[in-house]
Design brief:
Helix content is 30%, strand content 12%. The protein has 9 helices and 11 strands.
Length: 302
């Protein structure tokens, strides 16, 4: 039930989706670098210059922001895209360039809980055309786009993959929900006919397991603290608490969560995370602050 934790400020320390997505974004860059047969930073040597890798991050949520920060630290030239207007400023704060069709639909493309909305077919077509032109020039592409309660949107077509240079790498972090990339295979690294590697690892946070376990344990502890009476040191569940109402699946032998009443338990995998309760302010600090080493660099430095 932890994935139903509402995205409100009070629950940030309990948000398992964010803590694990943060690690997935980091590990995606590490996996991409491991499969990429070249150096990521520009290297000017006596034997010649190694050009900086160009990395494109598609989806600028928690995972995308960490992917941007990690790729920048490793010296790549980073661009990123998202349908949410707030992402533009976040991308810039991390020293990357933002790419998107910024029309009227784009300006309204965010839910109250900070999630991306599903865009119209017309917008998707315009964004796909812009992406297709850009993606052909990239060395590394990382996709992180998910829409709550829906299959992952297809962002990278087979034609886009075919347009990329041999040796390029794509990491699909949405592969467990159907994938953002055409040709991605869950649990496998696929090499296409034109020499592009598509990485579809499952449970990416589990690839950095010690950190994932540490953060998940802290998420659980923060939540359990709210369920214990500090005076009597006994379990005291307040059923009127917004955190409890959002995450309680069963009570007294009955299914009580509205997402599952009258439905099989397996529906848990596709249910939408809880929205902020009335009067609760959505969490505003889910973005990553720009690392000081990047934020203080002169503008001319990639």
């Amino acid at each position: 039930s932890m994935e139903f934790m509402p995205r409100i400020t009070r629950a940030q320390s309990m948000d398992v989706l964010s803590s694990q997505a943060n690690l997935a974004g980091y590990q995606a860059v590490i996996d991409a670098a491991a499969e990429y047969d070249r150096a990521l930073p520009m290297m000017m040597t006596a034997a010649g210059t190694v050009p900086a890798a160009k990395a494109f991050i598609m989806g600028v949520g928690v995972a995308g922001l960490q992917a941007i920060a990690t790729a920048r630290r490793l010296g790549a030239v980073v661009t990123a895209t998202d349908v949410r207007p707030a992402a533009k400023e976040q991308v810039a704060s991390l020293g990357a360039k933002f790419l998107a069709v910024e029309d009227e639909e784009f300006k309204a493309a965010e839910t109250a809980g900070g999630y991306a909305k599903e865009m119209s077919k017309e917008y998707q077509a315009k964004q796909a055309a812009l992406t297709a032109e850009h993606i052909a020039k990239q060395d590394i592409v990382i996709t992180t786009a998910l829409i709550p309660g829906r299959p992952a949107p297809k962002l990278v077509s087979a034609a886009m993959v075919a347009s990329m240079k041999p040796g390029s790498v794509i990491v699909d972090l949405a592969v467990e929900r159907g994938g953002n990339v055409e040709g991605a295979v869950p649990g496998q690294v696929v090499t296409t006919a034109n020499g592009v590697k598509i990485i579809g690892h499952l449970n990416v946070p589990g690839r950095v397991a010690a950190s994932a376990s540490l953060l998940y344990a802290r998420n659980l502890f923060a939540f359990l603290e709210t369920l214990v009476d500090k005076t009597t040191k006994t379990l005291a569940i307040n059923r009127d608490d917004d955190l409890v109402k959002a995450t309680m699946l069963t009570d007294g032998g009955q299914v009580v969560h509205p997402a599952f009443i009258g439905k099989p338990a397996v529906m848990i995998a596709s249910a939408e995370p809880a929205k902020p309760a009335a009067g609760e302010k959505p969490a505003t600090s889910r973005k990553l602050a720009a690392p000081k080493s990047l934020a203080n660099k002169p503008k001319g430095i990639a």
